[in-house]
Amino acid sequence: MVLSTFSSKLGGTQPQSPKFPEEPSVTRRQVLCSSTTLDCEKPPSGRWRTPPFDPRFASQNQTRNCYKNFLDYHRCRKKLNRRGKSTRPCEYYFRVFRSLCPISWAQPWTEQVKNGNFAGKT
């Protein structure tokens, strides 16, 4: 009722949101792969979803969830590469850690994994 009264005072038109100029869209992958320090793997094909709820990390702070999935992804890849199998099952961990972890964390961690001086047990 308030909106209809307000719009009638303005001449019957609804207020419209301002139009902003189109900004070039930069995907997260382009940002991640612009640095030479990050391993630029092709992201898994298919639709990317929000990571499902993990009851191990029930709080709002998802830092441990991010770190755990980063470790799980690299452990999975390492193990399957050693066996000579496809790393496709590791895509889940890849998607979750890329979704949860800030770029400023993932880049140094990936560089440290490459150099062999990452503090986590991979």
- Approximate shape: globular
Structural class: mainly alpha
Could you list the spans in which at least 5 consecutive residues all have pLDDT below 50?
A: 2-8, 17-39
Radius of gyration: 22 Å
Structure summary, number of beta strands: 0
Helix content: 40-55%
Helix and strand string, N-terminal first?
Answer: HHHHH
Total number of helices:
5
Instruction: Note the main sheet.
Output: none
Beta content: under 5%
What distance lies between the first and last C-alpha atoms, to the nearest angstrom?
61 Å
**Mean of residue pLDDT values:** 76
What descriptive keywords fit this protein?
5 helices; disordered N terminus; about 120 residues; mainly alpha
Explained architecture:
It is a single chain. With 122 residues, this protein is mainly α. 48% of the residues lie in helices and 0% in strands. It is globular.
Write the layout of secondary structure elements.
Blueprint: H1 2-9, H2 28-33, H3 63-83, H4 91-100, H5 103-115
Helix pairs in contact: 3-4
Short description:
With 122 residues, this protein is mainly alpha-helical. The protein has helices spanning 2-9, 28-33, 63-83, 91-100, 103-115.
